[in-house]
Design brief:
single chain, alpha+beta
């Protein structure tokens, strides 16, 4: 397997952050429907400078933190962002997050990007475990994560308040051996 094989599939590729990506990331983050699904404490709409710095921080090459712009190969257009952070050398685990532009939801492109980043995490970085959190009402994302091999392993009951209601936060993870079994070896 060549190094570039970790970063491309049939329909998507992962590449480094370009300054020209930042206005797109801000636009996606600024969309109230996209913001509704973000797990973070506070979504700062309409604050491009603050959001731009946040995205730059996601891509800082510090320790085992890593971030990629997701690009649709057919159009060569950025369609999302995926990053991992908090990797521990001793425990060989990290946390993952992904954001896909609303115009590309329900096409399987996010799942494809997840497969690429997990392939890199487990086969190149030799991580043991990757985790993420997702709102319990975000069934579309949960299905995509499960399709990529993640399992629901915990639930913080009524931990987040959105849309006038309390919702659970779901913890999901995948182990290196599970990823490799799913990939066929």
């Amino acid at each position: 397997m060549q190094p570039h094989d970790y970063f491309q599939s049939e329909r998507v590729l992962l590449r480094e952050l370009l300054d020209s990506d930042l206005p797109l990331f801000h636009k996606w983050w600024n969309d109230p429907e996209v913001a509704h699904y973000q797990v973070g404490e506070m979504v700062r709409l309409n604050q491009e400078q603050t959001n731009t710095e946040m995205f730059r921080n996601w891509f800082k090459p510090e320790g085992a933190n890593i971030g990629f712009t997701i690009v649709e190969r057919a159009s060569s257009e950025p369609i999302g962002v995926v990053n991992m952070w908090g990797a521990s050398v001793k425990n060989r685990s990290a946390t993952l997050a992904i954001l896909v532009a609303k115009s590309h939801w329900n096409q399987g492109l996010g799942t494809e990007a997840l497969q690429l980043v997990l392939n890199y995490a487990f086969n190149e970085l030799n991580l043991h475990r990757v985790e993420l959190t997702v709102f319990g009402f975000n069934t579309r994302a949960i299905r995509a994560y499960e399709k990529a091999g993640f399992r629901q392993v915990g639930r913080q009951r009524e931990a987040i308040y959105r849309g006038g209601q309390w919702h659970d936060v779901v913890l999901m993870d995948i182990l290196q051996r599970e990823f490799r079994e799913k990939a066929g070896g």
